[in-house]
């Protein structure tokens, strides 16, 4: 019997490891089921964090950082994997999958930039958004892309930093990946 755990990549939001204490809500559950590999999106995209403001980090990501992160991720990961991406992390995984990263399953939480995408990568994709997230893709986009979307009631963009929501999302991930 093969006891090797499936790999699951976690890709951070734009705040990187400096503001991601909440990541333990996910790792404490998921590491019991999977081999977890954590990627810091700022490291992947060689983002300069000397001005640690949302505006500056976001500006760097949309002006080359996402593309650098995608390229780095593709260089690092050669095997088929599943990914849990938070905000910009989900966008990085999506774009990497379009360029050849072999993603079996992609769980993207609050990845609002996906609303600009016109092509869907291969693999199972499950999206999670707070239903109050102003920038989440609209239902037309979700239907056109033929995607599964989970709306989290009364939540905004950073809903993934809530422990109770993290537990619910982890339950879905474990069920999906052990099916």
Explain how this protein is built:
The relative contact order is 0.15. Helices cover 37% and strands 20% of the residues. By secondary structure, it is α/β, with parallel strands linked by helices. Strands 2-1-3-4-5-6 form a six-stranded parallel sheet, sandwiched between helices. The model has no long low-confidence stretch (mean pLDDT 95). Helix 1 packs parallel to helix 6 (163-177) and helix 3 (54-76) runs parallel beside helix 4 (88-98). Helix 1 links the parallel strand 1 (7-11) and strand 2 (35-39).
Essential attributes:
6-stranded parallel β-sheet, single chain, 179 residues, 6 helices
Largest sheet: 6 strands, parallel
**How much strand?**
15-25%
- Could you give the count of β-strands? 6
| Element-by-element helix/strand order | EHEHHEHEEHEH
**Largest sheet: spatial strand order:** 2-1-3-4-5-6
Number of continuous helical runs: 6
Taken from the alpha-carbon principal axes, the silhouette is globular
Rg, rounded, reads: 15 Å
Quaternary organisation of the protein chains:
single chain
Category by helix and strand content: alpha/beta
Low-pLDDT regions: none
Q: What is the residue-averaged pLDDT?
A: 95
Quote the distance from N terminus to C terminus.
17 Å
- What fraction, in percent, of the residue positions are helical? 25-40%
